[in-house]
Write a structure and sequence with these properties.
Layout (H helix, E strand, L loop, with lengths): L2 E6 L2 E6 L4 H7 L23 E4 L6 E2 L10 E3 L3 H17 L14 H8 L16 E2 L5 E4 L8 H10 L4 E4 L6 E4 L16 H5 L5 E3 L12 H11 L6
Length: 238
Amino acid sequence: MPVKTLTINGQLVSAREGETILEAARDAGIRIPTLCYLPGLSAHGGCRLCLVEISGSSRLQPACVTKVVEGMEVQTHTERLNAYRRMIVELLFAEGNHVCGVCVANGNCELQDLAAEVGMDHDRFEYLHPNRGLDASHDRFGIDHNRCVLCTRCVRVCDEVEGAHTWDVAGRGANSRVITDLNQPWGESATCTSCGKCFLACPTGAIFRQGSTVAETVRDRSKLEFLVRAREERQWHV
């Protein structure tokens, strides 16, 4: 397989043809912040936290969907990028109800970790305080739409790994939300297998186990990694 050579933050990096900048950076031990990206799932490019600067282009490009090109020069942490990332995180906090102190995922939340990483010590935007509702009709899990960041990881893992496609996105703009089946209560879904993969994939406290209280959510994503690896390597292929 042809190899591409590029420069990331002044470091010479080799990547396989067809790889994305994000994959090449991670293989080289270079961190690029992400929220909607999850290894093993198709890239979504929705959160825009993985934006990078590429020499010769005035536009910022999402690293998770931008393929490497021979001789490409990439910057992953500049003053411009850091400002964009902080603004994105602040907007995510402002448009939802992310009160960490009373969240089931407090201390185990990717959005919370990102806020610390980008240096967010306050929010410059007015909080919208939406009332998006909560669905606790499922006997094992629940979803609080107020904490959902629309990363669609639940949608993709349900479709691409479990094969049920219970989850989808409905609405547009500020009215967008994830739904089960044809916008039925989760507990009435005819397609849900109760596998829990959506819970494991969720980066925030939006999808939670029934009975969980503050800071009790712990996700073992090694289970997802095992399933994805087994599928890719065709370990169960007959």
